[in-house]
Design brief:
16 helices; mainly alpha; about 400 residues
């Protein structure tokens, strides 16, 4: 026992007399020995960055004041690498700092999304399918005013590319470009001003005519097929209906308006009046009860059909008020058909067709005025765009 204790003491004394023992920490598995504290060795400037912390991708050349490359004198300690996609794999609009052409910018987004959808349609090769994204997700960095600018840029590009094409083909392409941009407009609106900014081009004769036609056609339901933009536009029209009616009736009666714009305005204004009329009919309890008992559809012509239905005084007061709007519209249509009006035959014929429809379907307080106009301007005379009874 005494010999073992003596041997242990000798070993401990020999260890305490070793010079490096007090300054060195023995490395564990997988670790490198640290340098003595009394004389630390400076890391050479050319030493590579640690493998556990790879250097981040260098900043683009267009960004001033980029940080020094790790490993050079004065450089800050390297930070962990970016876990997202490298710069080369980022989408074009994510690399672009200043958007100079919003129309082309939108096309870049849509083209990229189309390519991504093709990858989604392929059979997955891995355990998990790729994460899905949607086109509208990539529009969140834009504002509604950016899309208005994109609309005008898309119109200019369509007009420029179609200089040697038939006008009808170019007009169609303009409407396609406008539609492509405006489908994302409802997602970016933030105030009532975003809707009101769409009303100004309707009366602006300096705006592209197909731009105006596109907006006019979506002012009332039933004129064109429904879309996200048309639903948004018509929902807001209900709050601004008097203003929109004022703009449309002005376009309808303008003697120097473009024919295509005026034809669209005639259809939209008629549809707007009809929508207001139908809305009132569907709210009236007496009409709804009669339609349910008789099995007839609720339509404006219901008030003209002979039957057991006798509208009450309140009901008739409502429809007399609405009838005034149709009678004012008939007066505007009548002026379009006058011989001294220089409107083309297609506009005059369209005006007569609207009067025929109103006279045959709507409750009017003054039905004789519409009837006189139909008798005064026969369809054949309007086709020739000549004065009735002239024999020419």
């Amino acid at each position: 026992m005494g010999k073992a204790f003596t041997l242990l003491c000798i070993v401990l004394v020999s260890l305490t007399q070793t010079p490096e023992a007090g300054n060195t920490v023995q490395p564990g598995p997988g670790q490198e020995a640290s340098a003595p504290a009394a004389a630390p060795a400076a890391a050479p400037e050319t030493a590579p960055a640690p493998a556990a912390a790879p250097a981040a991708s260098p900043a683009p050349a267009s960004v001033p004041g980029s940080p020094l490359i790790p490993g050079t004198p004065g450089a800050a300690a390297p930070r962990p690498g970016v876990t997202g996609a490298p710069a080369a794999a980022r989408r074009p609009w994510e690399q672009q700092e200043i958007i100079t052409d919003y129309w082309r910018h939108i096309n870049e987004i849509l083209a990229s999304e189309a390519a991504r959808r093709e990858r989604y349609d392929r059979a997955p090769t891995g355990k998990y399918p790729p994460p899905r994204s949607f086109a509208f997700d990539n529009f969140q960095h834009l504002k509604s005013s950016d899309l208005l600018r994109a609309v005008n840029e898309g119109i200019r590009e369509a007009r420029k590319a179609g200089q040697n094409k038939p006008p009808a083909e170019v007009d169609h392409q303009v409407k396609v470009n406008v539609n492509l941009t405006f489908e994302y407009y409802p997602m970016l609106v933030s105030s009532d001003a975003d809707f009101k900014s769409l009303l100004y081009p309707i009366q602006d004769m300096g705006a592209d005519p197909m731009y105006r036609v596109f907006l006019i056609e979506r002012a009332a339901p039933g004129v064109v097929e429904r879309s996200l933009f048309s639903d948004y536009f018509q929902d807001n029209v209900r709050q601004e209906r008097p203003e929109l009616k004022r703009l449309l009736i002005k376009v309808c009666g303008d003697p120097i308006e473009r024919a295509d714009v005026q034809l669209a305005a005639l259809d939209a204004y008629h549809a707007l009046l009809l929508d207001e009329y139908s809305e009132a009919m569907n709210k009236d309890l007496s009409i709804r009860d009669y339609a349910a008992k008789s099995g007839k559809a609720i339509a404006p012509k219901l008030l003209l059909e002979p039957g057991d239905f006798v509208p009450g005084p309140d009901t008739m007061a409502t429809f007399d008020r609405l009838a005034t709007g149709f009678e004012d519209f008939v007066a505007v249509l009548g002026k379009l058909m006058e011989p001294n009006n220089s409107r083309p035959a297609e506009v005059k014929l369209a005006a007569r067709r609207h009067i025929e429809r109103i006279y045959g379907e709507m409750h009017l307080k003054d039905r004789d005025s519409a009837k006189r106009l139909l008798e005064q301007f026969p369809e054949e005379s309007l086709k020739a765009n000549q004065q009735p009874g002239s024999g020419q």
